[in-house]
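Hi Q.,

Before the meeting this afternoon, I wanted you to have the flavin-adenine dinucleotide prediction in hand. No need to reply - just skim if you have a minute. The sequence and ligand are here:
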Amino acid sequence: MERFDYDVIVAGGGMCGLITAAAIGVYSRQKARVLVVDRNPPSEPGKKTINGWTCGDAVSKRSIDYLVDNIGIKYGTPELEHPVEGVLVYSPDHETKVLFEGQGFVLNRKILPKRQVEDAKKVGVEFAFNVACDRPYSEDGYVRGITGRNLADGSTYKKTAKMVVDAAGNATKLRPNLPINSKIELDIDRDDLESTGRYIYDFEVAIEDPTWFDSRYALIHLDQYIAAGGYAWTFPKGKNKVNIGLGVQKKALDMRNARLGRKDSLQDLIDEYVRMNKAIKNPVQSPGSDDAGNTKGSWQVSVRRHNDCLVANGYAMVGDAAWMARPIDAGGIGPAIYASVMLGRVIAHSIEANDTSEEMLWQYNLDYMKHHGYQMASFEVLRRYLQTLSNEEISYGMKHFLSEDDIASIVNREHPKFSRLRLLNPAMLMRVAKEPKLASGLKHTADSSEELIAHNMNYPERPDGFEAWKKRLLTLLSAAFKF
Ligand SMILES: Cc1cc2nc3c(=O)[nH]c(=O)nc-3n(C[C@H](O)[C@H](O)[C@H](O)COP(=O)(O)OP(=O)(O)OC[C@H]3O[C@@H](n4cnc5c(N)ncnc54)[C@H](O)[C@@H]3O)c2cc1C
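Predicted structure with the ligand bound:
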């Protein structure tokens, strides 16, 4: 008789949980017994909050391709709702635009999880819906299951496993209540969270103005007035359909409100952003069944580097539970896809070796850091720096200090080097003289970025190197955060 109910319990069946479970099934050739536990009913998989599958829905094609190339899962219509040629970021004065990301899709996040549940079932994954995970369950210094509640009747729920994957998103109750010693940071700083919200609207085109709506591009608007400490977005879902919303940092919003003598809330600002959009007339919350119950919502997203350690004995985190969204644009779907596939592979090997120790799972830390996560600390520095700038400074910097190379770096998800500021020609000197603080601030973020990336590429091969590595990381970060 097996000692544990399952090999792996995945807590949370959202974007990450469903891909991780499927990846374990694929890599273990269906031998691992995997259970996904989610609080949603089976008719509503992947629903993030009571008000829907709240997201901007944008994902790059290369992230989707990674899934196909590695675990053979290919999405199509209707879940890939609308293709885009890229993501354009507009300066606050709308005079400069930067291509931030290549081809991609705007997803239907209500439909996609249904497809993902089927994909997971095909490789043998089991599901427990209507169950809230409240606490990790531990034995002998290992996480060995979860305890929670059956939401249908309030009865206690407990299942055991060789390990647990925490994929329960931003509001996970597992990480903060981890009952064993670990290298994992348990709590997030409030300033590293953004409050975000959005509508899904059908609308009439008021005027053709591609700086406000373009069915070929996902648009990001930087604007410290409308989205203090964050950004606003207008992502097309068709020629007359849009996902439109914004995110703010609470501290930046409080400062902005105090400065302007206003009391604007997140929702006030989202409504104002919709009204100021020159291309959108008569918006109505999209009435179709594909969007019902998902047209207005708000939720949180983290904008710091991912947790410096992602594993412990019998435990691993992925996605929003591990703060994986990219600090600069809160894009979490791409990291979710990469990390879930990598984690699935490592877990399949660990289960095969009958070893779910921190040391065995460590490979996931290494894979994620070396293949995707190494940029995140430098993006955290850039995000913090951008939050100190005014609209005028952002517009000026984007117009005068960003070079073609910087833009290419951004498209490749790398920190821009602001090389124009390093190799100053006479024309640049004049500009720098006008905005010396801005120029030196941007150069400082680029310099820190090089050090942080080098340090991350040197992530310790084994757990015993972690303490020294982390100490050095914190030293580098504290210098980098001095703008
Ligand atoms: C407004 C907004 C806009 C965004 N826009 C974008 C964007 O355009 N592009 C992009 O890449 N990223 C975007 N993101 C981020 C992206 O949505 C997330 O990074 C991504 O959904 C993370 O997936 P996840 O599986 O980690 O978490 P989630 O998608 O939140 O899934 C968590 C799952 O766990 C379940 N769960 C939670 N708690 C429990 C519990 N106690 N017990 C049982 N089950 C539980 C939930 O029901 C859910 O099914 C946005 C986020 C927000 C809030």
